[in-house]
Amino acid sequence: MTDAARPVTKMSGALRIARFRGIDVHVHWSWAIVGAFEVLKRSDAYTSLAWNIAEYVTLFAIVLLHEFGHAFACRSVGGTAENILLWPLGGVAFVQPPQRPGAQLWSIAAGPLVNLVLLPIAFAGYIAAKSFAPDGNVEHFALTLTVINGVLFVFNILPIYPLDGGQILRSVLWYFVGPHKSLVAAAGIGVVGAIVIGGIAIWTGDIWLGVLAFFGANVAWRQFRLSRNRVLAATLERRVGFACTSCGEGPPVTDAWRCAACTKHFDVFACAGQCPACSRVESSAVCVYCGVNALVTSYGTLPTTIVPTAPDASVPAFDATPPAAPQ
Ligand SMILES: [Zn+2]
Ligand SMILES: [Zn+2]
Ligand SMILES: [Zn+2]
Questions:
Q1: φ/ψ (deg, to 5) at 300
Q2: Which residues fall inside 5 Å of ion ligand 1, going by CB?
Q3: 228 alpha carbon – ligand 1 mean position (Å)
Q4: Residue 231 alpha carbon to ligand 1 centre in Å
Q5: CA dist., res. 162 & res. 190, Å (int)
């Protein structure tokens, strides 16, 4: 997975274990617990538990190499990559490639390519172990590494956003329909794909696959809605003197925000955050372009006739709905 797929947006709960060429490697605490569970679960595969531990650690070393593939590729095209997170569902490289389809494509494709390169190396190790190793441990270990690389490659290139394959699909579509419509299409396919994977998880009783499908569906659905909003809002008039502090886009002049109290749609910026229907004042608003939730006042100068309430952290986040949504 890469930046757009980040399931954990902050490094909370994660420990920095290494730094290589300016890239910090973090490990989430839950990794150790899942690791212990995984190691004990397959304790009969080897003659010694040490091999199980080595296998699990090597699995994550391979995932780490995959993430470094993303990170270095991203840097090679002028992007930034400073953090990698390992957690029980795999790895996340927090990469920000330049907003060009070619740069995105290379940053994403480099991850699975690492596995494609490692695959024959691990297989050669297996063939060598089969012929020369004295016991079955080395052979089983090398075979497992081969399978791990094969599975990581095949699984990650499935065209199901936010998996790498889904992001590769998005980068390719970008050449034809631009950055936003390509994301709408890829994320939409991602939602459908996650539901299918979720079905397979229920069918096979695979908890790990189920958790992965759940996270994937969440990320894909969120991206689908955001990018669809962007496509819809791109054609609208923008409010002069207002801009999102995160992405710089001016909010569209439309009833794109929903009141948390009465659920009516209204234009937050036309009335200083006060709902015309129920008079509730919302202090924050989601940017329809980038999805960042910020104080209404941070977007720009407000009319002085209505004084917004003090920032209230307990106010539920606005649900940015598409301007075309039924009222
Ligand atoms: Zn990846
Ligand atoms: Zn924004
Ligand atoms: Zn209201």
A1: 160, 180
A2: 111, 164
A3: 24
A4: 26
A5: 7
Distance between CA 220 and CA 227 in Å, rounded?
10
Q: Model confidence over 31-55: pLDDT tens digits? A: 777 777 776 676 677 777 788 888 8
Cβ neighbors of 137 (< 8 A, separation 6 or more) are 46, 47, 48, 51
pTM of the model: 0.72
Burial of 204 (0-12, 13-18, 19+ CB in 10 A): exposed
Q: What distance in Å separates the CA atoms of residue 233 and residue 90, rounded to the nearest whole number?
A: 35
Amino acid 43: pLDDT:
61
What letter represents residue 29's amino acid? Answer: W
d(CA 274, CA 287): 17
Burial of 248 (0-12, 13-18, 19+ CB in 10 A): exposed
Secondary element (H or E) of residue 293 = strand 293-295
The pLDDT, as a whole number, for residue 96 is 83
pLDDT of residue 293: 85
pLDDT value of residue 302: 58
Report the distance separating Cα 170 and Cα 161, nearest Å. Answer: 8
- Give the ligand with the smallest distance to the CA of 320: 2
Contact 27, 13 (CB under 8 A): no
Distances (CA, A) of 120 to 54, 83, 123, 127, 142: 20, 28, 5, 10, 11
Q: How close is the Cα of 282 to the center of ligand 3, in Å?
A: 9
Instruction: Give the closest ligand to the alpha carbon of residue 255.
Output: 3
Tokens read off for 7: 């399931």
Instruction: Determine the Cα–Cα distance for residues 260 and 184; give it in Å rounded to an integer.
Output: 26
Angle at which helix 29-41 crosses helix 49-76, to 10 degrees, equals 140
pLDDT digits 0-9 by tens, 113-125: 999 999 999 999 8
Beta bridge partners of 81: 95
Instruction: Output the six-digit token pair for 125.
Output: 């190790």
Structure tokens at 245: 């502090």
Residues 6+ apart with CB under 8 A from 171: 101, 102, 104, 105, 108, 182
The Å distance, Cα 275 to ligand 3 centre, comes to 5
